[in-house]
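Subgroup meeting minutes
Present: P.N., E.W., G.H.
Scribe: E.W.

1. P.N. recapped why we're keeping a running log of single-chain structure predictions: easier to compare across weeks, and new members can see raw inputs and outputs side by side.
2. G.H. added today's entry (234 aa).
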Amino acid sequence: MGLKRVNKIYRPRIKVCGLTRVDEAVGCAELGADAIGLVFFPKSPRHVSDKQGRAISTAVSEKSKTVGVFVNASYDHILRKADICKLSAVQLHGQESPDLVKRLGDAGLPVIKALFVDGNPNLSEVKNYDASAFLVECSKGPLPGGNAMAWDWGTAKEFGRAHPLILAGGLSPGNVTEAISSALPLAVDVSSGVERSPGQKDLERVASFINKVSNCGDSFRREQRDPFAHFTDA
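Output recorded in log:
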């Protein structure tokens, strides 16, 4: 069937993470993804090179923000990647220090900090981080990230009342409605749940995911803001 861009009604914003191909990233942006995630972690099967990252950022710049995902990388390394790959923001998915988050913010780079319901850093450490938004998931898999594991998303609901929450971990077209109803996040982050293999997105599944999120608009808190609106232009 033909794929059509979803109208931008009020809804939780959507980040599709782990893109490795320009054509698939463009497809996600055209379908309505608000942000595209690029993984700069060599152990990940979704790791991209500088060349891939820059090509994807350039291709989607008119429709979507690009977020570089890093795990325990240095300040200089992150800034270099952000410049070369024209990133709109960065996501720190390891045990990065509050000082690193602050330094990146002071350099004009918006930061999403990952916190974990059962890992380190956990939700109680939010007070230490001056981040633009917080991605929350579980941490039971072998690699940093959701590892396609669904969890009790409702445990993040209270956190989201006080902090800009991006919900992640095990999301798919089949469960994202339940996840949003349980946690009421500002945004959702999906990767393996819309893939045919690691790093290869299935645009039919992406379209289904975005449609499911868009249909949550009526029950979503209308006073919420777009967590990606202040990200820099790629």
